[in-house]
Structure prediction request, 912 residues.
Amino acid sequence: MNLADDLRLPEGVAALLAPLAELNTADAVEYLNTLDREDAVAAIGALSSARAVKILEQPELHHAGEIVALLAPERAAELLGLMADDRAADLFHELDETEREQLFARLGAESRQAIRKLMRYAPATAGALMTTEFVAVPADWTVGQTLQYVRDVERSRETVYAIYLLDPRQRTLQQVVTMRRLITGDMEAPILSVAQVNAPVTVEPNLDQEEVARLIRRHNLLAIPVVDVQRRVLGIVTVDDILDTLIAESTEDVQKFGGVAALDKPYMQIGFFEMLRKRAGWLSVLFLSEMLTASAMQYFSDELAKAVVLTLFIPLVMSSGGNSGSQATSLLIRALALRELRLRDWWRVALRELPTGAALGAILGVLAIVRIAVWQQAGLYDYGLHWPMLALTIGAALVGIVTFGSLSGSMLPFLLQRLGFDPASASAPFVATLVDVTGLVIYFSIAALILGCTLL
Amino acid sequence: MNLADDLRLPEGVAALLAPLAELNTADAVEYLNTLDREDAVAAIGALSSARAVKILEQPELHHAGEIVALLAPERAAELLGLMADDRAADLFHELDETEREQLFARLGAESRQAIRKLMRYAPATAGALMTTEFVAVPADWTVGQTLQYVRDVERSRETVYAIYLLDPRQRTLQQVVTMRRLITGDMEAPILSVAQVNAPVTVEPNLDQEEVARLIRRHNLLAIPVVDVQRRVLGIVTVDDILDTLIAESTEDVQKFGGVAALDKPYMQIGFFEMLRKRAGWLSVLFLSEMLTASAMQYFSDELAKAVVLTLFIPLVMSSGGNSGSQATSLLIRALALRELRLRDWWRVALRELPTGAALGAILGVLAIVRIAVWQQAGLYDYGLHWPMLALTIGAALVGIVTFGSLSGSMLPFLLQRLGFDPASASAPFVATLVDVTGLVIYFSIAALILGCTLL
Prediction:
């Protein structure tokens, strides 16, 4: 096949490619996402290698793994070899065993080794996020030597803005030089003369990605080196990987807080049964726990029969406990995630939530008492002879329940962290359920206390 | 005062400064946050200007505005003049009118003008986030000229990794050159020869910061230029500002979803009454809406009196609606935030949520029927003669309520977006309240239908 053959594309593919010519990479990805699988494969197969690589490197491209698997094997191997190795490793993860082995066989030894190494790290760790395509030079080089080296390797490195200086003998990490300092240096001066003064901030490969993100942000870095126990640089995590990580974590946090198992795909791409599975689990657990409310109500059914008027306010009183609890939980999830608070601070939070909850409950209690009084006086509803006592019961129950809701909602994230879970696993529905059952018991106990010698 | 005087620090300040010597910037900020106000001011006042500026530039430093206001005015003006102008503008925002004017008077004309300009933009927009300290050169320069210029101005620019090429006459933005391409270029070649091929991605100053973050991430940029209508560059937003933005937005989203007005300070720094204000507002609104449940119950009080057994399951049935609603809301908030879905896709979502909700409701319905049957048969509780009809009522009500919950929970973010609000303003407690009132009506209607000729 000569070049002319290569350029004569089937008409269908030419039509697919036409819009791509005008688009930048991000828009091209969006366009390819609208095509069906075969068309996307045909389009990527027909693009120049440089363009195809850029597109495949975007995590926004849907079904990238499948697309690579459907390309001609030589073409797939070529593109994977040219891609950033961290992204190539992500794609390999999406392939099945046979596809993987088939493509590995065709890759160059260096790419194959780098990708295999990256695939060994657990997902969502520094090791899984990192790229091995960074710039490192011996610490006894000059500024000029380093700059020339960066010029030579620039094309094959994910970033050249952080340059790692290694001990010439042990190859361990000594210092970091930023590109901006490098270019201002005297060409003859030793590279160490423009290096940063502080010891480089590093991470170990098993560190959780959230923690990596926190360090990059804390030290305003463009990349962070991942080192082994001997302080040899295994790779670097760059800030653009961290942006993607933060977005994904934030999605996960909101979904978990809503009481859904975190989705790993966009909403519309999840099949009906997968969606059921992601939601039914938690929903059923909550439902089974919430069944305790029925048991609690059964326990109080004599009181209920005697004073039906008490049932009228059950939803109102209960939901207030759940709402105040979910407020407190959301505040504490973030305070723990941002390290504003540590585990040992739980009692300081408890001491704040107690008066806050009581005050919030008192506010709602006054609203409820006013509501009952107005309805009664205006003749909108007759709560019976003992309506002032009833109003008092509701008001007092609200103080108790909102206090309990705020307190348990704020303690739940601490408890989860103490047990080794992510505090962000605390969900609003979970808190509401927790508070509902206790709330009912509080409600009826206060009712028994206040209405004991009248209604009940 | 000579230098020797300057170096003889009061003993207290020396003790405060001692730990700072060993710490990098981020750790120094953390240490200063543990000091009380006066000590922090004394410590920052006594540091070298370069160090003090680096520390004041960290958004993690607490009460930075107050600290600047408490420094000697000449010192404060000096540090503000040396700081990145976007961060200086943030600090000016925290000062009161008199403090502001006093410091402005002492600033250099250039800094003053830059900061005043930045302060004019609405918070949380590209204009408010941007820095004016970027590198721009005429597009007819050579690579060598540009590199020399970057070397000269490097110290005073927030980033030099993106260089903006301006039309030599109109000063409008023509192209962008990255530092990595610049250093590989031939010194004599025109700078345009190493520029990016695609038109630069730009934003206008009023664009919301979430949108700016999305574009930076989408195009894997280290900085994005902010341009006016004539395409003159006003400033740039850098990726480290975006990291901070994403963290703040994610905190806001979780807090809003929990039903709290977003806090602008760490949890422990918020006073008792401010905390009450942030929480009582929403809690009271929800409470007043939830009062409709009492009205609904009052409406059905005859049925309640006749069949107290119905009340036993009210909390269970109602909470299931709220939980399924909050699941659906959390999914859709993120799908809309990530642009996986557009406003016009609402009906596709509705068509998915209807069968999903019905299936989830059926699962819970079966659980409830089994529960009632087991309790009845095992003699744990007597639901009366018509218990199979009661079980059927609960099961059917769950299908109806969970379907309604999923549907309204998924539509709420669309509705908010349509009305011009942030879809992330939809909170779990809000959805629960919405579903509770309707849920009660569904429950009693189904009960009337099924139990009409027996219990009721």
Remarks:
- Strands of chain B lie at 135-138, 162-166, 173-178, 223-227, 233-238.
- Confidence is low (pLDDT under 50) at residues 1-7 of chain B.
